Amino acid sequence: MNALSILFLLIFFLILFLTYVIVRRGWLDLTTSAGLCAVMSIFTLIGFGLSREPALALVHAILAAVVIGLIFTGAIIVMASFFRVNEPGEAEKAYLSRNKPPSSN
Questions:
Q1: Calculated CA dihedral for residues 45, 3, 51, 47, nearest 10 degrees
Q2: Which of 12-21, 57-66, 78-87: highest mean pLDDT?
Q3: How many domains is the chain partitioned into structurally?
Q4: Dist CA 105 CA 103 (whole Å)
Q5: What is the spatial distance between Cα 90 and Cα 73, in angstroms, rounded to a whole number?
Q6: How far apart (Å, rounded) are the C-alpha atoms in residues 38 and 70?
């Protein structure tokens, strides 16, 4: 792997990480963040494919990037949404902090 392909791969990982944080914290609308992540992921994966294998057909690089980009984007969105929905609210956190079970010592 050359340095350019590693750079594209690191950008792809950074996009996925930032999307997870953005969705989990609710900083952007879910559809907006999913769309931005999908588009940016696809472009970075196209760059990764073409920089790794220059003889790779452009159509093959685009198709592979679309499939892989959408799968990873979907997985990140589902995970972040799941943990966001199941995160305890402020009232639940306050209740749990007041009513701690006795220690088993």
A1: 30
A2: 12-21
A3: 1
A4: 6
A5: 29
A6: 6
3-state secondary structure of 46: helix
Q: Is the pLDDT of residue 8 over 60?
A: yes
Contacts of 49 by beta carbon, 8 Å cutoff, 6+ apart:
56, 60, 61, 64, 65
For residue 5, what are the contacts with CB-CB under 8 A and spacing of at least 6? Answer: 48, 51, 52
Give the domain range for residue 10.
3-86
Q: Is residue 101 part of a domain?
A: no
Mean pLDDT of the region 50-56: 78
Residue 105 within a domain: no
pLDDT band for position 18 (50/70/90)? very high
Distance CA 69, CA 77 (A): 12
